Amino acid sequence: MGRLRWHCRRALLELDLVFQRFWAQEGDALDERTEAALTRLLALEDHDLWELVSGREDTDDPELKRMVERLRQV
């Protein structure tokens, strides 16, 4: 879990703020499926990730879509 949290550190302040709130609210309750989706999201470039989180872009992948929705709710 520590490694995943470390990978959430981003160059964009906006993403850092989203991930800080996410970890504060949900960090201890992640299941394997959620961790896998988060890992896939974190493989994206910051700009592409921000486009998803901010709602400017969407994804067809249902797992990523659920994870993005969770990030948007925090």
What would the keywords be for this entry?
74 residues; mainly alpha; DNA polymerase, domain 1; 5 helices
Describe it for me?
This protein has helices spanning 2-7, 13-26, 32-42, 46-53, 62-73. With 74 residues, the chain is mostly helical. It has a single domain (2-73), classed as Flavinator of succinate dehydrogenase (DNA polymerase, domain 1, Orthogonal Bundle). The protein is globular, with a radius of gyration of 11 Å.
Tell me briefly what this model is:
The protein is an all-alpha fold and 74 residues long. Helices cover 69% and strands 0% of the residues.
SSE blueprint:
Layout lengths: L1 H6 L5 H14 L5 H11 L3 H8 L8 H12 L1
Helix pairs in contact: 3-5
Q: Give the tally of structural domains.
A: 1
CATH architectural arrangement: Orthogonal Bundle
The CATH first-level class comes to Mainly Alpha
- CATH superfamily grouping: Flavinator of succinate dehydrogenase
Return the string of H and E elements.
HHHHH
